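Dear colleagues,

As part of the handover before I leave the project, I'm documenting each prediction I ran so the next person doesn't have to rerun anything. This entry is a single chain, and its sequence is reproduced below.
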Amino acid sequence: MNRDIFLSTFSHNAAKEIAFYGIGIEFNQFCISRWLDEETIDDTLTRMRRQAERCGICLPAKAIVHGPFTDLAPAAFDHRFRDLTRTRFDQAAAGMLALGLTCMVVHTGYIPLIFDPRWQVKESIGFWQEFLQDKPEDFLLLLENVMDEKPALLLDIVDGVDDPRMKICLDVGHVNAISETSVPEWIETLGSRIRHLHLHNNDGIHDLHQPLTEGTLDMEEVLRAVDACCPPDTTLTIESRDCHDSIRWLLDR
């Protein structure tokens, strides 16, 4: 495997596995919004620095941040919820920049049957364009699918924002559980816009975050599609809760 590999910090024994295999880290601390509060952020950043040290990582090298997503919606109908969403993303961006990091994964916030896809695309474009206005030139925002049923929503948002600092993080486990369109078809459709992937497997129904080889998703086929359609610098994060076998399997490819 010639691509850079990261491991999510929610995986079991993440620090030990990252240190042993010399792979990168994807921090999950910012996923829970309250850890971004003024009274907690300094402690959060301290814990992240210490975790990186235990992993043998000298920040800012080999590190990505997963941004907050609990209760957040960039396309919210209520402007106050949208303002809160913007505040949380700005707090996350400030925190990661304080660590010297420049790459953050964020969810689309799309909920089927609640948000019309056309509304989601239109409102998300405006939200992310405004968010990126004051961010550094080397900032990289990676938009991730969760409950998105088709690749068109991600495609239309990223193309609509039309900013080189915004690309896609494709979560293949979410696609497998939610979408009737296959993962290779998503990869082919999104192509060069994909800059990062979250890898985990499941039963095709539930978002189980199982090891890469335990589930209905053919991960060999996924990797072939990535090599055929995505840029050479596209990176991968393992998001299996039990990660040891997944790391070994991926490193052997």
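The longest helix spans residues 79-98. The mean pLDDT is 97.

All the best with the project,
I.
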